[in-house]
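TICKET #2291
ISSUE: user wants both folds in one file
ATTACHMENT 1:
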Amino acid sequence: MRYATIILAAATLAAHPAPAADNHHNHGHKSPYAGEQTRDIKAFSREDIEELLRGGGWGFAKAAELNGMPGPTHVLDMAGDLGLSSDQTAKVRQVRDQMRQEAVALGKQFVAQEGELEARFRGGEIAEKELNHRVKEIEVTRAELRIAHLRAHLAVVGILEDDQVDQYNALRGYR
């Protein structure tokens, strides 16, 4: 009897599921964006802007990092644990410095472009043609920024020995 009741209850719930949350019409509930309307650039938090302006990774290189290809900053942080030679350290530092220089410049450009887009929306002055142009420009900059970070991971793999890459991934908790 108890088993039949459970089956009947499950069948009833399956036939009449609870209403799904409506993400577009919150019916008096706070939006997950509440509070973000005070941001200077709505698309970025203060932390996002700081990360981009200092040339930080912003998650751009996860495709490399999480597939076993070390990044230069982390490798330098772990140089002793990885047994890097002085030559390897110098080469990785050069990769990191080049990547950071490029990422800082592109990060500034990316933030500025988003700021310009924000200003046009804030002023209510943007037309579709301009919108399309601005967003495409922003995405080219974003792509270049991501490539700069990913390219650095590729370069580091060419500097390290296979056992150092394995050790890196073990220390980072990936293996």
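ATTACHMENT 2:
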Amino acid sequence: MHPYAIINFHELTPAALCDVITSKFHQPIEHTAEEIMAWFNLERQDDPSAPATADLQQLLFTKMQTEFTQLMRKETSIIFPVIRNAAIHNKGQKSLQPAVYDSIQQSFQKIILLLQKLRQVTGNYLLQGHWSAAYKICISDMYSLEQLLQQWIYVEQNILYPAVLPANTIVIRQEEIINTVSID
């Protein structure tokens, strides 16, 4: 069981959630991603047992890593300080503009799409007996990273951001507009 599994995120204030997200999600995600990239950058070329899709895996992973790294930096340097300051100065008033949340949602959607594609090209992270031990660890780390990313996104989408968006904010995603049916 992961150490953060016993945290009741619903009991935390938005400011406390920012701290927990940074320590329990951002840091482990970045660390795991670095380990995965180390295999791609250092061991991939010397590993004849890696499948032909390893190059595509690296491409997708790099794109996903860029996306979540940018979002984490945005959160830690801009969004989380705003949330913390609002907790101190505004005494519980909602502190995040819907446009900021829309931008975050777009990043989450990109990350989720890249996770799906990565899962496809890795064969659902199913390990093969003929792979090297290092590549098996890399694939296992990708699976662990997927779990961390999904939990991070879930906590933010369902607990943190709803707590800091102004009341009565209607958040409509682009895919909801496209999929609407006319009454005509």
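RESOLUTION: both attachments delivered.
EXTRA DETAIL ON ATTACHMENT 2: The helical segments are 14-43, 54-89, 98-121, 133-164, 174-178.
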